[in-house]
Amino acid sequence: MSLDRAWDSPGRTASVVLHGLAALVVIFLIVPVLVVIPISFSSSQYLEFPPRGFSLQWYERFLDSVEWTSALWTSLQAGVLATLLACILGTAAALALARSRFPGKALVVGFLVSPMIVPVIVLAIALYGVYAKLKLVGSLAGLVIAHAALGLPYVIVTVSATLQRVDERLEHAAASLGATPWRAFRHVTLPLIRPGVAAGALLAFIASWDDVVIALFISGTRSGTLPKRMWEGLRSEIDPTIAAVSTLLVAVSLALLLVLELLRRRSARLTGAQAG
Amino acid sequence: MAPASGSRGAPVRLAGLRKDFGSSVAVDDLSLEVGAGEFLTLLGPSGSGKTTTLLMIAGFVAPTRGEVYVGGKPITRKPPHERDIGIVFQHYALFPHLKVFGNVAFPLQMRKQPAARIAERVAWALDLVRLGDMGGRYPHQLSGGQQQRVALARALVFEPSLLLMDEPLGALDRRLRETMQGELKRLQRSLDLTVICVTHDQEEALTLSDRIAVMNHGRVEQLGTPEELYERPLTPFVAQFLGESNALAASVLHGGADRVVVRTARGLEMVAAAVAPPGDGEVRLSIRPERVDFLQPGESCDNMVDAVIDEAVYLGDAVRYLLRTPTGEMLIAKARSAVGGGGPRMGDAVRIGWSADAVMVYPATAASIASGLPPPTKAGEGRGGG
Hey, is the C-beta of A167 within 8 angstroms of any chain B C-beta? Predict the structure, then answer.
C-alpha cells in the first residue's frame, strides 16, 4: 500500500503537468486557425476579432468574384490532376521497388522521396529555371507536373507500406491461373493495396491544395491557385474574404483527413479479419 | 468437354534442368519423366533443390540450362500465365478480397469464359472438394482444411494438364492431414491427374505418391516407388531420410557370391546380402529397426547377438527399443506392442537377431545425412581385429 502511494502521488502530479502542457500546445496550434473562422462570418468591413454580428457576405463576395472562383477552379484542377499523376507514377514506382532487385535501389528510393525532404523553396526555384526554358511557366500542365512531384513521395511511402503486407505468392497464384501481369495487378494486387493508394492520393491532394511556394513561382497571373490568390490578396485588399477562403481551405483539408482516418480504420479492420 | 469428365493429365519430362544462384548450384542436371496420370513427389530436406525445381516447372524461376516438356511440348520459354499448370501453393495463396466463388472463378474469368459456363464449372469444382455450399464465404471465414480444398478447386477448375503442389498439407493438423491425403489421392485417381508434389514430409510422400524422387544437393538420389525406396534404398541418405535406420560404419571381412561378412568399428560381425559388389574396403551398413527381432530361446537367425535394453519408448502401436550389445554397439529395434502390454522392459537382457537380407551395404564414400551417420571409422581400427 505504502509503496503504491509512494509511486502514485508524484505520478499523478507529473500526469497533471503533462496533460496541461499538452493542452497548451494544442491551444497554441489550433487557436490561430479557429480565430479565422468567426471572422469569416463577420458583418464588419475589416479583419477584426471578435467579429461584430453575423453575415455570409464574405462568402458571397468570394463566390461572386471571378478572380476567386477561377483560382478555386485552378486549385481543384491542379489538385485532382496532380493527384492522379502522382498515384499512377507512385504506385508503379512502389511496385517496382517492392518486387524487384536492382543495383542502386536505395539511391532510387532516396531520389523519389526527395521532394518531401528538399526545402520547397529550392524545388520551386529549380522548377522555375527549368520551366522558363520549356515555356511551362504559367501553364496548368506545368503546375500539375510540379504538384505531382510534390505528392509522389506520399504515394510511394503509403503504397510501399501496404505492399509489404501483400504476399507475393498471391501474384504468383494469379499468374499460374492464367492472369497476365497487368490483369494480375488489376484484379489481385490493386484491390489489396487500394487503402494505401487512397491514403497516398489524399495526402498528395492536400500537398497540392496547400502549396503556395511553388504556385508563386511557376503559376502565371491568370492561372493562380487559391493559396496564391490569398497571398496576393493579403498584400492589396485586406478584407474578411481572406478569412472566408481560409475557412474553406481548412474545411476541405479537415474533410480529407477525416476520410483518410476512416479508410485507415477500415483497412485495419479488414487486415485484422484476415489475420484472425 | 463435359464438366464431369474432368481433366486428363499430360506426361511431363524434365531434361537436364539446372539452376545456378550465383556460384551455388540449386538444381544440378535434373532429368526425370512423369507419366500421364502419375503422382510424383520430390522429397528432400530444405535446400535440396526441390522447391526450385517446382518453381522452374511453374515458370517463376528461369532455368540456367535444360528444358521442361509438358505433353511433349517444350514450355521453358513460356511465361507462367501461358503454361496452363494448376498450382496449390504452400499456405494456399487464396485471394483474401474475393469470396470462395470469386477465387475458384478467377482462372475461368482470366480465360474470358461466359458467365453461365463459369457458374457451372465453379459448382463442379466446389462439389469435387465437398464445399458446394461455401461459395459465398471469404477465405478468412474458412478453416485451414477448407481453405486447402478451395485452393485445390481453384487449381483444378480450368482443367490444367499438370498439377503442382508445394507442401500441400504442411499447414494442417495431423487428423486433417490424414483425411486430406485420402481425398487428394481419390481426386487424383478419378481425374487421372498428373501431379508433381514437393514435400519434406516422408509420410506424406509415402502415402500419396506413385513414385518418389528423393533429392539431395540439387540431384535426385533415387527415384522409385515408395516400396522400392523404403525396402531397397540405393544410398545411405535415402535409407536415413525415408524412415528410420541403424547406420553403422564397417569393413568387409570376406565377400562371397551372394553374401558378405562385415565387421563394424566396435567389432560386431554380421552377414549381409551383397546387393552390389562392395569391394573389400570400408562400407556403410543400414538396418531398419523393425527388421531387428527379439529371439525366443532356441530360435536362430542369420545374425544374432546378446543385448541389454537401454531404453524402451512406448509409441502405442509399437515399442522402440535402444539396445546395447556387449561390444558397446547401440542398435534401435522396433517391435509391435504386445497385447495387454508386457514385452521386454528396460534393463532386460535379450537376444536379438536379423536376417542377412535386412542389412543394406553401401560403399563408405556414399553421401549421407551429415548428422544421421556416425563419422567414418579409422581404417586401422576395423581391420585390426580381423
Answer: yes
